[in-house]
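For reproducibility, we list the full input for the iron/sulfur cluster complex.
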Amino acid sequence: MSAKKSQRKKAIFKGALTFRPHHFLCALCFQGKGYSPKFIDNFKKIMAALNSSNGDITKIKIVDHTDSICHPCPNRKGMKCTSQEKIVTLDKAHAKALGITSAKEITWGEAKRSIAEKISLDKFHEICVSCDWKKLGICEKALGNFLKKPIK
Ligand code: SF4
Ligand code: SF4
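The corresponding predicted structure, in tokenized form, follows.
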């Protein structure tokens, strides 16, 4: 691994992960697809950490700007997204549905429990309505499978 790549990995995993509100559900539904190879690689690393044996106690700081998932995204412009208006709408809908506020910290386990309790498939269709990825059906299927399993 080059020094530059190593630095990037360290930067992503240093301290608490940051997620903007709608990325909790995106993370739960992630199936290896995304905006670019670097974006996918970073997202896979984050999910490998969250799905590891101690992943549920990983702390995630809620932010109202670009986050650990956005970091290598080709659509990121500094702390904003090129689709800022649409993304803010998604964030607001997901924050309200999950009852989360920016600057707070929750664990991945708490986030999953909250999704299990508060996000039905009907709610998913409501809060994700403006997302272009929704029509692929990947997230609906992943969430449906998650909701069928008892939460630990
Ligand atoms: S439909 Fe879009 S916003 Fe909703 S979970 Fe999937 S990728 Fe995230
Ligand atoms: S499209 Fe925007 S909100 Fe989504 S990951 Fe990329 S920079 Fe972040």
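The first strand starts at residue 17 and ends at 19. The two ends are 36 Å apart (CA to CA). Both points were considered when choosing residues for closer inspection.
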